[in-house]
Amino acid sequence: MREWVKIYSFFLILLIFNTICIAQNHIVVLHTNDTHSQIDPIETQTYGNIGGVLRRFQLIQETRQKEPHMLLLDAGDFFQGTPFFNFFKGSAEVELMNMMGYDVVTLGNHEFDNGTAELAKQLKKANFKVVCANYKFKNKKLRRIVKPYTVIQVNNVKVGIFGLTASLSGLVSPSTLQEITFLDPIASGKKVVELLRDKEKCDLIICLSHLGYTPVGDNLISDQMLAEAIDEIDLIIGGHTHTYLEEPEIVNGTRIYQTGSKGTRIGKIKILY
Asked: What is the DSSP letter of 219?
């Protein structure tokens, strides 16, 4: 894919909408991470009254009207952080993500705060795909919902999307930890990239990563290390560390993105071919 594609990326701060008009075949990827149940706008003293689901939904709708060949992706931790999660246990977030039309998400550590059974219950309501290639679950319902990868055809481009998530050691309860087998992210990533390239014949490979821009705690693998270790990932859309990358970082030919936290920004990537 890297031989025939040009990629433009920029951010939509949730008060201002910008676009680029280029008369060429393209697809658009909108992406978020670490929105943390932030359904209301952020309070004025923190971020100047920006963000919130209504603004996000408006920008997504405006983009879809102009860019019909669009994907909407999230890199995890869409649960936990406000009383909405404490009261509704994730159902409000899933319902709103359905409304906004998310296509694919990966799981963050906070999706497991109420355990695997409750997570399966909430994700069963999702209209979007859930991908994670380096976890194995004891919970059968969760195994049916969460897949290593998915493939979506967008404007004649075959897009393979897979997920990787950080170790949950020290981040969830011991009982939840016993329900999940954590696999090495790099080994898992290499395996799924090979499948997407050789079996699925994908034109574009995207990793939704909740590993973090840099290593955190017991998680020793970062997005930068992942890009260095695996040659054929085109885009890494990251989360976990709440990093705001104003421009993508390019490592080993892979572009790494992350949009901060709490839904204050939406990343926009335009891929020309």
From this structure: B
Tally of domains within the chain: 1
At 100-155, the pLDDT tens digits run 999 999 999 999 999 999 999 999 999 999 999 999 999 999 999 999 999 999 99
Angle at 216 (CA atoms; ends 73, 247), nearest 5 degrees: 45
Among 3, 264, 24, 49, smallest CA distance to 155 is for 24
67: domain range?
6-17+25-272
CATH number assigned to the domain comprising residue 186: 3.60.21.10
In a domain, 189, yes or no: yes
Query: Whole-model pTM?
Result: 0.92
Total number of residues shown for the chain: 273
pLDDT digits (tens, 9 = 90+) for 46-55: 666 788 999 9
Asked if residue 1 belongs to a domain, the reply is no
Q: Give just the sign of the alpha carbon dihedral 214, 215, 219, 221.
A: positive
Q: Do the domain assignments include residue 87?
A: yes
